[in-house]
Design brief:
- With 217 residues, the protein is of the alpha/beta class.
- It has one domain: P-loop containing nucleotide triphosphate hydrolases (Rossmann fold).
- Helix content is 40%, strand content 16%.
- It has a seven-stranded mixed beta sheet, sandwiched between helices.
- Strand 6, helix 6 and strand 7 form a beta-alpha-beta unit.
- GO terms for molecular function: GTP binding; metal ion binding.
- Belongs to the TRAFAC class TrmE-Era-EngA-EngB-Septin-like GTPase superfamily. EngB GTPase family.
- InterPro entries: G_ENGB_dom, GTP-bd, GTP-bd_ribosome_bio_YsxC, P-loop_NTPase.
- Necessary for normal cell division and for the maintenance of normal septation.
């Protein structure tokens, strides 16, 4: 059972108004383009985006027409923060998702398409499950319709895309070729304004499905 003091602390960690609308959460490592994606979806240019990892340290909520977009803090390495603080933020992210899973229509996991296979290899060498894959499985287990936005693909040579993307979907447990999983994986370069435009359509589809299901229930 959670301590009342912990709950009050947790509420201070959330920035934005509560709403009855379904939620769409955005998660990912620090510095993968999470807040940039949120800024593009909301068309809110005041959203802070930084070059250093760990700019988003609170849970930020943005009201949209038929849902609330929730930008969760980045997990993993955060510039200038102690390891204990990083772990605490990760715990709060998991806590938020578990506590709100009934109102989450879908989730978006943002990854760095260029660095991802190397990151997984590094974790595998320590016999550990990479945090991104662990998060994806967690979202799947809770039936939160995870979409994986594979960002920063402008940093991969175009002729290497199929090889890189096949590798990425396989690391998430899906058989290549990657193109057959376009309902889960979205290839993008937010910097070049490419690929992400599919995301709002996918969100709207899941939000409508969520609303229909809740009416039936």
């Amino acid at each position: 059972m959670r301590d009342l003091k912990d709950i009050e602390k947790f509420k201070k960690f959330i920035k934005g108004e509560e709403s009855d609308k379904p939620e769409v959460i955005v998660v990912g490592r620090s510095n993968v383009g999470k807040s940039t994606l949120v800024r593009m979806i909301t068309n809110n240019k005041s959203i802070r985006v930084g070059k250093k990892p760990g700019v988003t340290l609170k849970i930020n909520k943005y009201p949209m027409k038929n849902y609330t977009l929730v930008d969760l803090p980045g997990f993993g390495f955060m510039s200038g923060l102690d390891r204990k603080v990083e772990e605490s933020i990760k715990d709060k992210i998991v806590w938020y998702i578990e506590d709100n899973c009934d109102k989450i229509a879908c989730s978006i996991l943002v990854i760095d398409g260029k660095a991802f296979p190397e990151i997984v290899e590094r974790w595998d060498s320590r016999n550990e499950i990479p945090i991104d894959i662990e998060m994806f499985q967690f979202l799947k287990e809770l039936n939160l319709n995870p979409i994986v936005l594979i960002n920063k693909m402008d940093k991969v040579k175009r002729e290497k895309w199929d090889e890189q993307l096949d590798k990425i979907v396989e690391l998430f447990g899906y058989n290549p070729p990657w193109r057959q999983w376009s309902d889960i994986f979205v290839v993008s370069s937010l910097k070049k304004n490419f690929g992400w435009h599919r995301i709002p359509h996918m969100i709207n589809r899941y939000v409508e499905e969520y609303k229909r299901k809740k009416k039936v229930d």
